[in-house]
């Protein structure tokens, strides 16, 4: 119960929920496409079982991700991936990722489609949520991951359309989400075992990951994602303008 009284716990939970909403908005589309051919009476079951299976699989993947983050240099790799994911959030591709998702007229076929599609699309979620859980520290990383995912399920499944409309109306939400991923990337990078543990890769110079260093790295990561995202957007606009003029 001490974990629930920790500020770090609730900050991490809030980050996990925001990440899952921002990066998991496609899940509702996947569920709808996979279950669209089911008889009306089975659609609710397909949605519930598919979502439950996808969340269980994600918890397992995050558990392994948290374990792997103890390996030297993997946090640095994860931080780079989070920066890339944040940039893609600010400047998304125009490709339709859902074109290959086929609906099934059988319940378990639809459930399997939801789980497999979610597995393919959840790598970004897993990395980001593992990074957010790392920021909480202590022995309650997995409980807060599970708690955050459970809280975000109804938001994604039933509130996804509202969230999408809010994002369309207030683009600053997307910008804040991308910068959040940059923040997590920065704080993750400066806590890599290779940089902070004297017993790991001893030949490398070490840093003391104080709160000031973590905050500074987080701010730098957030600004980096914002800068690259704006640059990519401007470059695409200039290319589109050149193509239109040509």
From TrEMBL:
Keywords: Membrane, Transmembrane, Transmembrane helix. It comes from the Bacteria. The keyword Transmembrane applies. It is a multi-pass membrane protein. Pfam families: TerC (PF03741). GO terms for cellular component: membrane. The keyword Glycoprotein does not apply. The chain crosses the membrane at residues 12-35, 47-67, 73-91, 111-132, 144-163, 170-190, 212-232. It is found in: Membrane. Belongs to the TerC family. NCBIfam families: R_switched_YjbE. This is Membrane protein TerC. It comes from Piscinibacter sakaiensis.
